[in-house]
Design a protein that fits this description.
Strand content: under 5%
Largest sheet: none
Order of helices and strands: HHHHHH
Number of strands: 0
Number of helices: 6
Radius of gyration: 17 Å
Helix content: 55-70%
Length: about 220
């Protein structure tokens, strides 16, 4: 979720950290949504990850993206940090007290606003790389399917959303892997497919260093 800018001296690219945090938390939650682990009591393992990795680590990544002057990365990491923090609070403190007959409507509404946000971030991601665009396309599909699943109370759709979430996590891990590996090797070792959306970019000087996103 990091598009390149010329980073101030001494500021590393926070993109791989934020993407890894997002991927890990999404993967663990999606395992339960996909019903790969069936004991609902074990789903509590998601909460510490949501607080400290998906939440805190992405918040730090967002602040570093602000420091770099990267609006896209700061908006994405800051928002998904808030998603995981609010998810943890919702799952722990709010959902258990909701009326059983209508709680799914609250959960569906919660997912709907994140689906809307992710869809318009996908439009912005067209100016990044194929690796990042894949994250946003699959994440949009995940939110939409899970939102529909809650409103329709469909366990089959929840499982489908879980599998989409697993694909999203793999895409985010790949983008993180590419960012940190290319930075460590100081050259493009893992492809991120930067030509995606190139027809939308204005022609101007290439700038930035090894990063998870694309030069724009």
């Amino acid at each position: 979720m990091s598009t390149p800018t010329t980073a101030p001296a001494g500021v590393a690219d926070p993109g791989p950290l934020g993407l890894a945090a997002f991927a890990a938390t999404t993967f663990v939650l999606s395992v339960f949504n996909a019903n790969l682990i069936t004991d609902p009591l074990l789903a509590a393992v998601v909460l510490p990850l949501a607080l400290f990795y998906g939440g805190l680590a992405q918040l730090l990544a967002a602040m570093w993206e602000f420091r770099k002057g990267n609006t896209f990365g700061a908006t994405a990491f800051g928002s998904y940090s808030a998603f995981w923090l609010s998810y943890a609070a919702y799952a722990k403190f709010v959902a258990p007290g909701l009326p059983a007959a209508t709680a799914h409507q609250a959960t569906g509404l919660f997912l709907l606003v994140w689906a809307v946000f992710t869809v318009y971030m996908t439009v912005a991601a067209l100016r990044t790389t194929g690796a990042l665009l894949a994250v946003f396309v699959t994440l949009s599909a995940t939110y939409i399917v899970l939102c529909v699943a809650e409103f329709a109370q469909s366990t089959g759709a929840v499982r489908a959303g879980g599998w989409l979430g697993l694909v999203t996590a793999v895409c985010a891990w790949y983008a993180s892997f590419a960012g940190v590996t290319n930075s460590a090797w100081h050259r493009s070792v893992v492809p991120v497919f930067p030509d995606i959306g190139s027809h939308l970019r204005p022609h101007r000087a290439h700038r930035g260093g090894p990063i998870a996103g694309a030069h724009v």
